[in-house]
Amino acid sequence: SMKFAKRCAALVLIFAQGGHAFRKRAGARVQATGLRGPQEPKALLEELEEQLGATSREATELKLQDLESDLRVTFQALPKNQRGALEAPSARYALHRLFNKRHGWQIKGLETAGGTWDSESPVVAMGDRVPPQMRELLEERLGSYGLTLHELAVLAATMEGMFEQDVEQRLRIVYAEKNLAAEEKVYWDQAMSVMWSYVAAFITGTPVESLSPGDVRRATHQFAMRFPRHVEAKTLLIDITQEIVGETTTAQYDVRRLAQKGRDFALLQKILSKFGQRLGALEDTECKVMKNKMTSLEDEYGSGAVRLGDFYGDKAEYHFTEAPSFLRRNGVLDESVPEDPKVLIPNYLANPSNCVTPAGYYSICCFDECESLMDQVEKSLAAPMGTAEQIAMVVSGLGSASQPANRTLSARQLGLLDDVAAHHGGMVPIHGRLFAQWMHEAYPRECSYPSIGERLRQVEDVEHVEVEEKKKYMLIAKEQKEKGQTTTTSTKWVWKEELVDQKAFEFHVKSSLRSDITIFSALGFMGMACAKLLVGPRLDKQKLI
């Protein structure tokens, strides 16, 4: 009967919705619990305590809530293994993005320098700054189990502890330069002198691994000349001191009121740790000024590219001096049209000549404006891949410093996105080179063009352009403009894919496919059963006739 048919159809629909909900709940349980079974490893915090002591565990626990919150969106969107955990390449990628978003830090061993994410474990970035047993433990955990969200946050907190060790080491060297013992208290004027020398050495001095008291002295004397934002740096230092100490000071430093309160080494270390975490935000204000200057020189409005000759031009207060060979090695130069080379704005902002390098293993650089855009894509999909239509809908709604929200994507952008989906069998992986290249097309001023091949990064001194070479490129730029030559995109499209974690992505695709087959098979079975129940009585009636 019609009533029975409606009930049967409703039952099939309920089952389909239930199957979809079950998959979502099951996926959530995998991520939340990692399918913990008899082979589940010992809690990472317990092993951390065994290796580094109870004090290290307590310091780590204080950071976990914030770190888990900052990692959650990216973690949920990355492909995972059977345990619902991230393998080494994805863990490395997530940590790289975390430290860049939080502090503007680029950590050697986490960023790829144009290589692949699976070329090294993130534990390599820790070097010898943690005990060998701890490194072995983390490598074993990554290799055998992967890392859950909680465990990834534990690793991030452990890495942050490395930077705090550097603060202590540098501060002891500053104390030695001031002929102070680390055990004695220092008073306000002494404390500010110590911290200011620390800041000078931190920003413009020798990396901490080779820093000497003499280096501290020279950095302090030359700081105002070598660092144009020294006034802003002092304001930042005073603001942080006030926050932590809980005292209000005047611009003249009221020594009479504060002189009686001694400051110990641990307090100064805490203040200076916070300074290192916030310096990236201070430097990023300069990055934005630099970006505005470069966008005013674009070969075509909104292209995200500046002709090399215009880059070297003398039109304003900024004088860019990096040699073409240096820019090329660092993935900044677009030479897809050899006779008209261009500097890619987001790639230039991220290059090492714009970074402060307090230690050999990390630098403080411009914040990556593409990060907030990627966060929104990941949050919307909550999965390693999406359809071209899903992604186009999300991205078209995302505004940036240069693109309005709720815009209409160009035919080229939509076509390329469809092509990426076709390249991957109908879905677009969002953690790979092709999608990063597409994001550069969609946001040429915010998202870097993903270079092909390895680049040098944070390991070489800046190479400056020669006068004659500079003049040559300025003449080329002038000739191109006279010809009326412009480009609608900053670089040609290159069909080369590099997924963050190929193995985990393939596992995700197979798991999704198996789940879909199971559900659709069950739906098909129920549909056949309903059809049989509906058609059966009619056949029986026909036989009777």
The value of Rg in angstroms is 28 Å
Percent of residues in helices comes to 55-70%
Extended strand count: 8
Strands of the widest sheet, in order across it, are 1-6-5
Structural class, by secondary structure, is mainly alpha
State the helix count. Answer: 20
Biggest beta sheet summary: 3 strands, antiparallel
Low confidence ranges: 2-6, 8-38, 248-259, 455-459, 516-520, 541-545
The overall pLDDT average reads: 83
Shape: globular
Q: What sequence of helices (H) and strands (E) makes up the elements?
A: HHHHEHHHHHHHEHHEEHEEHEHHEHHH
Query: What share of the residues does DSSP label as strand, in percent?
Result: under 5%
The end-to-end span amounts to 19 Å
Description:
The chain contains 20 helices and eight strands. With 545 residues, it is mainly alpha-helical. It has a three-stranded antiparallel beta sheet.
List the helices and strands and how they pair.
Elements: H1 2-33, H2 44-52, H3 54-77, H4 88-103, E1 105-107, H5 132-144, H6 149-177, H7 188-204, H8 213-226, H9 230-245, H10 255-258, H11 265-295, E2 305-307, H12 308-311, H13 324-329, E3 333-334, E4 342-344, H14 345-349, E5 356-359, E6 362-364, H15 370-381, E7 385-386, H16 388-396, H17 411-423, E8 428-429, H18 433-442, H19 467-483, H20 502-544
Antiparallel strand pairs: 1-6, 2-4, 3-4, 5-6, 7-8
Helix pairs in contact: 1-20, 2-3, 3-4, 3-6, 3-15, 6-7, 6-8, 6-11, 7-8, 7-11, 9-11, 15-16, 17-18
Describe, in short, the structure shown.
This protein is mainly α and 545 residues long. Helices cover 59% and strands 4% of the residues.
